[in-house]
Specification:
The structure holds two protein chains of two kinds. Chain A is α/β, with parallel strands linked by helices. Chain A has a domain of 326 residues: Spore Coat Polysaccharide Biosynthesis Protein SpsA, Chain A (Alpha-Beta Complex), CATH 3.90.550. Helix content of chain A is 53%, strand content 16%. Chain A has 15 helices and twelve strands. In chain A, helix 13 packs antiparallel against helix 14. The longest helix of chain A is centred in the N-terminal third of the chain and has 44 residues. By secondary structure, chain B is mainly α. In chain B, helix 2 crosses helix 3, helix 5 runs antiparallel to helix 6 and helix 14 packs antiparallel against helix 15. The chains are: A alpha/beta, B mainly alpha. At the A-B interface, helix 1, helix 2 and helix 6 of A face helix 5, helix 7, helix 11, helix 15 and helix 17 of B.
């Protein structure tokens, strides 16, 4: 019995150490992100971006939109994208072998006509059937290809994109009008920048008209509200914090921007990959930054892209399981980076953080809950210790989430009404009772499925934006 | 920037009422927020009475105070402080080229003469680049010769590209010979920019060099070569068409076919 007691105590001590370690990392990230945000806001405050782009030597950008069975939203989405503010951009829509009327809709609405084409680059992709150009919108081209998945479609788009910068967006993303001006700035300021990500926000509950956010709101669903807080925490603190170390390991696939040369050098996206958005960034660190450590993969905290969050448990579960599989896949594919001093901060700190806390986190947490219950049931920990530990853990989670909401309020103030702020505060508090544990469980299951061979994407249903 | 009736009304409202002393008192306060707001409105209304206080604020340790004061002085067209703004900007890590450009472009075109005198001895590539961009912005012709010398010798890509754009904007034909050398630059962005410029500044003597660039390794360069040839050489469209459809396996010809087919849709 004494040996079991030691084992249980030992494991509990390990969990406590793990908990303290992750708390310390989050606190450091919070402080770093806070100062970065202040600095960023000061920088951007005196800039009239439209004027800057009139004056300076900007780079042209190609925006790649992979589309698979998007007949319902593609027309509205493209009309909105064509209104983006940027002096020289090309919109490349890749119809990835849709089985619905996506291509037909493009014919009907954009006066596209077939053009002669030759790929400028040779990234691997499924066969391109035809390329079309719009006579109405000269900056719109449509690529029709055999189905090969998102990564494959993006590669086909890159092969035909004309501009030195490539933005990749989801067909159902809602972009802010000036998002390209903002995301391109880091490339103009520093020629070592090879990739830039921006903040993704949840659009549920907002008023969207013709593909533009006209009034930011909050969904009535608490599930969506929890995700708003989650996104604020992930983007405002997580990515901002890691950015200071040049340690961004993931840029959201909903909206990312790259130097085309960098994409070509690493042979583009990896077809068939589950988490292609993370995998490509890790590969950039591994291949390009090893050759030239000055290269930067960076992040701008501006809310530039809005996306629809799942409002049902079924879809959310599928999404989280897929994300976890993507994380595991990317980390295992590039395990060479783990504690490898040749990769600097990435190898010694950021990658181990992702492996230990993002990949293994759900496993440790689930076992932690399990052992905690066992310890308590068998009297290895006292009631007062159990209550103190749980209260600290939950309070800490609440503080982190509330800080994210406060930082949002101090910086971008996209939720200006007091009622919205109070709702977000409530969500920041409530998400710690059930929601967080549920997502941990789904991530655990995602990992389990990954290792038992179920590595498919799963279904991702979206309601779509009504207007 | 306010102009016309809007400017007159705001200027009268601030300069001829008690708002001006109120804003100046805020400018003298210790709060960066109050200073920034006051500087913004005094600059917009071109309140000369604030000039001396704003000049002192350029030495502020607070970056936002420095930037708002510099912007206000630029709107007041206080050309004497141009180089003080450049010098002080270096104290702050995050005062970018963009911020400086936006501030400098608020001055009137009179700034160009001062910048031209400085450019003759300026070695800093960032200031050279900003200066040339401003010459382009104001379409300032007298700087052509000096910028030409810089463009030929500069090792800085930004400076070279800004120079080429400047030559194009003022149609500085003397730059054509310099472009002859730059068309083979190892930097693709420069080659692409030269080809664009040749559409305005070049002549038929460039024809062979432009044809050579159709076999460039970079798409932008190839694309610009085709479009420049069509603009620059009368009757070249037919020759280009023959090239495009007579060499079906040639990569350069494939790109030309694409450009031609795009052009037919656009037209």
């Amino acid at each position: 019995m004494e040996i079991i007691s030691y084992i249980v105590w030992g494991f509990n001590a390990l969990i406590l150490f793990y908990f303290l370690l992750i708390c310390s990392i989050y606190i450091i990230l919070n402080i770093v992100a806070f100062f970065k945000m202040i600095r960023y806001n000061r920088t951007i405050k005196y800039l009239d971006l439209k004027r800057v782009f009139k004056l300076t030597n900007y780079k042209a950008i190609s925006v790649i939109v992979p589309a698979y069975n998007e007949e319902n939203g593609i027309v509205e989405s493209l009309k909105s994208l064509l209104q983006l503010e940027y002096p020289d951009f090309q919109l490349v829509v890749v119809n990835d072998g849709s089985t619905d009327n996506t291509l037909q809709k493009l014919f009907e609405n954009f006066s596209i006509r077939q053009v002669s084409f030759t790929p400028f680059y040779k990234l691997k992709s499924q066969q391109i059937r035809s390329v079309y150009m719009s006579s109405e919108y000269p900056n719109l081209i449509v690529i029709d290809k055999v189905n090969g998945g998102k990564a494959d479609a993006i590669n086909a788009g890159i092969n035909l994109a004309k501009s030195p910068l490539i933005a990749v967006i989801d067909a159902d993303s809602v972009l802010e009008r000036d998002c390209l001006l903002k995301i391109v700035r880091p490339f103009m300021e520093d020629e070592n920048v090879i990739a830039v990500g921006g903040t993704i926000r949840i659009a549920n509950g907002s008023n969207i008209l013709h593909g533009n956010i006209v009034d930011v709101g909050l969904s009535k669903s608490w599930l969506a509200r929890f995700q708003v807080v989650e996104y604020l925490r992930a983007f405002l603190f997580g990515r901002n914090g890691f950015d200071v170390l040049n340690g961004i390991l993931i840029i959201s696939g909903a909206f990312s921007c790259f130097s085309r040369d960098a994409l070509i050098k690493i042979d583009g996206y990896r077809a068939g990959c589950i988490g292609e958005d993370m995998e490509i960034i890790v590969r950039m660190h591994r291949k390009l930054r090893k050759e030239n450590p000055k290269l930067r993969i960076t992040f701008i905290p501006d809310p530039v892209c809005w996306t629809e969050a799942p409002e049902t448990f079924k879809v959310l579960r599928s999404q989280r399981m897929r994300w976890q599989k993507g994380t595991v896949d990317s980390i295992l594919l590039h395990k060479k980076l783990f504690m490898n001093p040749a990769y600097g901060w990435i190898g010694m700190l950021v990658f181990p953080y992702f492996a230990l806390f993002e990949m293994l986190g759900p496993v440790i947490e689930i076992f932690g809950y399990f052992f905690f219950i066992i310890s308590f049931s068998f009297g290895f920990v006292t009631l007062s210790f159990a209550v103190a530990f749980l209260t600290t853990a939950i309070l800490y989670g609440v503080v982190l989430s509330v800080l994210s909401v406060i930082l949002e309020e101090l910086s971008f103030q996209r939720y200006p009404k007091l009622s919205q702020l109070l709702t977000l505060m409530a969500a920041a508090f409530l998400e710690n009772f059930g929601y967080r544990q549920l997502t941990t469980w789904w991530r655990f299951r995602g990992m389990f499925e990954y290792f038992t061979g179920k590595r498919h994407w799963g279904q991702m249903e979206k309601k779509g934006f009504a207007k | 920037m306010l102009k016309g009736d809007d400017f007159d009304r705001l200027s009268a409202l601030i300069n001829q009422t008690k708002i001006q002393p109120f804003l100046i008192s805020r400018l003298k306060s210790g709060s960066p927020r109050k200073i920034n707001e006051a500087a913004y409105f005094l600059g917009l209304a071109k309140s000369g009475a604030a000039r001396n206080i704003l000049r002192k604020k350029l030495r502020s340790q607070n970056a936002s105070v420095f930037l708002s004061s510099a912007l206000a002085l630029a709107r007041l067209n206080d050309i004497e402080v141009v180089f003080e703004i450049f010098r002080n900007a270096y104290r702050f890590k995050f005062v970018s080229k963009d911020s400086l450009l936006v501030i400098m472009s608020e001055f009137s075109s009179d700034i160009c003469e001062v910048l031209l005198q400085n450019l003759k001895k300026e070695k800093n590539a960032l200031i050279q680049s900003i200066t040339i961009t401003l010459f382009r912005h104001f379409k300032y012709y007298p700087a052509g010769e000096i910028v030409l010398k810089i463009a030929v010798y500069s090792q800085n890509k930004e400076v070279t590209i800004e120079s080429i754009k400047y030559f194009t904007s003022i149609e500085f034909l003397k730059a054509a010979n310099a472009l002859r050398a730059l068309i083979n630059s190892p930097k693709a962005e420069i080659r692409a920019e030269v080809l664009k410029a040749l559409a305005v500044l070049g002549d038929s003597s460039f024809e062979q060099r432009i044809w050579d660039r159709m076999y460039d390794s970079e798409y932008e360069v190839q694309y610009n070569a085709v479009t420049t040839l069509m603009i620059l050489i009368p009757g070249s469209e037919e020759k280009i068409s023959q090239f495009a459809y007579g060499n079906l396996k040639d990569r350069a010809a494939a790109i030309v076919r694409m450009v031609l087919s795009e052009r037919s849709i656009k037209s």
